[in-house]
Write a structure and sequence with these properties.
The protein is an alpha+beta fold. 46% of the residues lie in helices and 14% in strands. The strands form two sheets. It has a two-stranded antiparallel sheet. The protein has a two-stranded antiparallel sheet with strand order 2-3. The protein has two helices and four strands; from the N terminus they run H-E-E-E-E-H. The chain has one domain. The protein starts with a helix and ends in a 7-residue tail after the last helix.
């Protein structure tokens, strides 16, 4: 009974990591992806237009980085860098076939 639950958790985790890899940015929760906030409501007999300001959370970019996406991309970069370093070491240690 616990094995299918474990597989379901692993599948959900893999799907989450895949979505983080493909879509590392999401809409800003403060401005809902618009980049600006409307402050103030029209009141009284002569309502003034509401004040539109740049979102302080995303600074007008309308995007925010999703939790875990930076860590995932940094980990992938480190793994690729390490594999490239090991490949260069193997190529340097192997005798060159052009010398034969």
């Amino acid at each position: 009974m616990s094995f299918p639950l474990f597989l379901l958790a692993v599948a959900a985790g893999a799907a989450w990591l895949g979505s983080l890899w493909l879509h590392p940015f999401g809409a800003c929760p403060r401005c809902r992806g618009h980049g600006h906030i409307t402050r103030g409501k029209p009141k009284g007999r002569k309502p003034r237009p509401p004040k539109v300001t740049t979102c302080p959370r995303c600074k007008g970019a309308a995007r925010r980085q999703r939790a875990g996406s930076r860590t995932l991309h940094q980990l992938a970069r480190r793994v690729r860098r390490e594999l490239a370093r090991q490949r260069r070491q193997r190529q340097a240690a192997a005798p060159s076939r052009a010398e034969d």
